[in-house]
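If you are new to this repository, start here. Below is one unmodified record pulled from the training split, so you can see the exact layout before writing a loader.
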Amino acid sequence: MLKSEKKSLIRFLLIYLGSTFLLFSIAAWIFYTSQKHYLLDQQRDALKFESAHIISTLRTLHKTYTPTLVYPVNPLLKSAIYDLSKTYIFGTDKPRELLTQEAYMAMTTKLYYLSKVEPYYLGAAFLLLSKELDKKPILELQKNIVWFLLGAGVFFALLGLFLGRLFIAPMRESIEKMNHFIQDATHELNTPISTILTNIEMLETFGKCEKSDELKTYRNCI
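And here is the target side for that same chain:
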């Protein structure tokens, strides 16, 4: 491959692979963001379901009030109940300031879900559930996206190399035709030039002979 062909191929691959990588990176980021939100929503839905279960248990305790009330405990998550003034009453989680549901939804390091206890059961007006974020599906998602980008990168690199060779094929064909033309032209020019040079040598040789002998052949002159 000629130097000019290599330069053209490298420029084509840089433009092609650069634009392809940029587009795939944007698409992968959009896909990752949407899937991450989907996975977080699934875990929040589990908190929402558990919140409804605890509120139902509080309702049962309220209706069947006994001196020994047992707070519903789930070993997989933490919960706490607050009164109407948002003061901590009891729970398996430490007291914390209550935020809005939108603020809890924006958190990604740890999942929270805030529910209103309606009607007012056992002095509890709010129920806050918290759970450590399960990062395993998110890490698996990241791993799959990285492998996809690597596979796509190899595929499009090979495809770009193939397309690049097709791209420079007309240039190579033109260069080969030009080389053939130069070779043919050189060959055609070599014949008369060789004849002229031979005649010049003969004239120089005949110059050493008598004028009447100039028409003799080179062999007889010698």
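Two things worth knowing about this chain: Confidence is low (pLDDT under 50) at residues 209-222. Residues 3-138 form one domain.
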